[in-house]
Amino acid sequence: MKIDIALIEVHDAETDLAQQLLQVGERHRADHDVFHLTRTMSGWATQRLHRLATHSTTYGVPQDPDTIDRDQDRGILALVREKGAELVGHRPEPAILLLRDIRDLHLAAARASLGWTMLGQGAQAVNDHDLLATVTACHPKAIRTMKWTVQKMKEASPQVLAS
Amino acid sequence: MVDRIAEPWGTRTPYARGTEWPVRIDTRLNDGVTPDDVDHWVPTASILHSNGDALDIAVKDGRMVGVRGRADSRVNHGRLGPKDLFGWQANASPDRLTRPLIRRDGILVETDWETAMGAMVDRSKELLQEQGPSAFGIYTSGQLFLEEYYTLATLGRAGIGTNHIDGNTRLCTATAAEALKETFGCDGQPGTYSDVDHCEVLFLVGHNVAETQVTLWERMLDRIQGPDRPKIIVVDPRPTIPAQHANVHLAVKSGTNLPLMNALLHELIAHDRVDNAFLDEHTVGYDELVSRVADCTPEWAAEICGVSAEQIREAARILGSTDRILSTCLQGVYQSHQATATAVQVNNLNLLRGALGKPGGGILQMNGQPTAQNTRECGANGDLPAFRNWANDAHVQELAELWNVEASSIPHYGPPTHAMQIFRYAEQGSIRFLWITATNPAVSLPELHRIRSILAKEGLFVVVQDLFLTETAELADIVLPAATWGEKEGTFTNTDRTVHHSDKAVDPPGQARSDLDIFLDYARRMDFRDKDGGPLVPWHDPESAFEAWQACTEGRPCDYTGLSYEKLRAGGETQWPCNATWPDGRERLYTDGDFHAALEDCESYGKDLLTGTAVEPDEYRAMNPNGRAMIKAAAHVPPAEPPSDNFPLRLNTGRTVYHFHTRTKTGRAPQLAAAAPDVWVEFSAPDADRHGIGEGDVVDVVAPRGSVRARARVTGIREGIVFVPFHYGYWDAGDQHDVRNRAANELTITEWDPASKQPIFKTAACRIQKVADADGHTAPAPTTTASRPRAAMAATTGGRDVEVTEEFGA
After folding, report:
1. CB contact under 8 A, A148 and B132
2. What is the pTM of this model?
3. Cα gap B552→B378, rounded to integer Å
4. What is the pLDDT of residues B238-254, one digit of tens each?
5. ipTM for the complex?
């Protein structure tokens, strides 16, 4: 049985997604919807990691659900990124960077989503109902983040490319 | 004679459920003028709030000398509010703009129309050449006329070809529109004002109706004083006048409307107070709601909202007792956290109770401005004209045929750009031409230091069209003097779909021109053409613009084809749809579950309420194959910017009964100006004690983005909340505010609802600190309204020259 491989893959993908969401938000502090929504969705990813961690013992995977540095104790680097974003927020260049960041977020969310697909198939194959329930609860929100990146790309790209 | 400053709601005429609301005709004429002296009475409706009160302007010797409510109006039955009784005087203010202005060497100087329009057109052509339509942003209003919005939408979308058109309706009514689209697939007010006559329960959610729609409150108050009073539930952190009359007053913490609504829905479901037959026949999505609110017990919500579980239970018992529930929402929902999600739950509540399309059982998702409904209908804010769906190619094709242009020349590759994003593009420099009509973003948008820096930005060409040199106009490159209500002809539609014709009573001052004339002149000078080389905008006056609009609405939910200027003139107000099926207009929508929610018909496929992501057409078809009403659930998430040690309180901004918008008109009507002359700050007695602050002390309200200095008013508002009225800017600030610390929006945060994109004005963190003693002063806040003081003091009165005649009809 290699369920642990799938668990680790989802864990790594969601950790990466949660961190990338925070960093993209910080880089685009002056794009206020990006800032607020990435923080919300990073929180969702962290919740998924916590739920995932409840299955670690069963499959002998080490736990580290608190690796995401967020909320009150944001690091000095994050503040520097935000301040920098505010200062250059009136220039056109960050708009192009936003498209790149949205693309990367999409890929990170797609990786997480595919990981959940894999884990869900595994859970069914080994008949682990609890694990399947976790996948059923968590996967739609990973997809929601992925859909948001597509929407944001649709909205943001025409103005960047036409101006 | 009644002092309508001291008594904003006038004299009561109680009535019973199911009977006609009695007539009371309010008349205000200048001193020394009697009704017999009046040369003409010119029919129109109110333009200083969204209620649409019909009135006649009294004209003598070519000047306005007063107003009189129209007894035959279904809306107000003759009554007028203080703003209508006195606000018209602003038309004749000596500081009206009478000539165009142009910026030369950094200073605005007077010029002529030829020069001003020439400069505007030259810059437009340059930018079209250099960058194309993406360089243009249009930011309009909720205060123009229908004909003007439709012309602007046509020339903007198909002439310039920009997707960046929105109105300040984004700040006032965007959530109402979005919530109706989410639930019913299409905008359009389900209910009607006469539902007040028939209701058994009034559910007012974040809607201080006594101050925002005075005569609607009078109607409610007359029911309350009648023999069979409706039960009233009020959700509001302030001790508003309606809250005083409530059976249950839920004074929730800022940003917690959604958990309260979820708990109310939980209670209705848990106690089986649900109309299952109605739900089965007319809705989809109920099961998801059941599972979403399964854990949302009154105890759970009580903890989050800061009200008692028993109060929530009592409210649910009342709501579960009848299907004659009239539910209304306004800015307490729309400008607060999780705005669309909350407004949708209010829709859900009525659906669960089967309280839709029945006399007294209905929904009023209110508007904030008099003509906001037309901004929404005409495609001047975020949707295509006549509620067409930008994501539906067939709808775009209809529009293309109507305008005789290629569909590809109407931008529809993404959602029309919302106001906050338009300003963001201007900030980044990709929008370089910003045309602002009849609104004052330099006072009304959030985080004003940012807005001012955008408007003043090098490389952004700003055109402002207004009556006065507003705070926004001062930052413009071109200022165009506009004619206003009473000085031009047109139509507009109120919150309950009533269409009014408004006639010209007097000439505009100096060289001021109607907004329609300015738009038509611009379109002509830009030489916008259809695909056969004909003029894109072939109409030439209000009536021909109205006829073009009628053609645009044919077969759409807001069908105007059965109307005409002739029919509307002289008090022929009518609710839309008005067509062959409904020749006299339709009072209530959806009486037979006849929604406009089918895939082919709907205005929007809906959005994810938490992320704003658009639902795809195939998902929509799967979710709602039969075009029913959609029940959509949403989970609570905490508001951004949580209070901290440094900013421990929550800011709430809002309105007072005596003023409208940024006081460009009401601040120039002496009686209204005197009733609420300057900004104040409201908080509770416990918060006052904690800070050692008393009534009238000078206080700084400080947020991470700025501060406001004002006198303190200690009231019965919920602890932890600081209220500042948003009306006050800088044009009449005097020497009290030599720095920018008078406008409430110095404090507000740039954040918006993910679905409706409406800015959130009611949850920013702040602190208060005392600056100076009262020194014998009290706060300049009215004592007659939600701002009434705990301390004893002289009441707000009109003094001299406020007398209003009330005549009582049969």
Report:
1. no
2. 0.96
3. 9
4. 999 999 999 999 999 99
5. 0.91
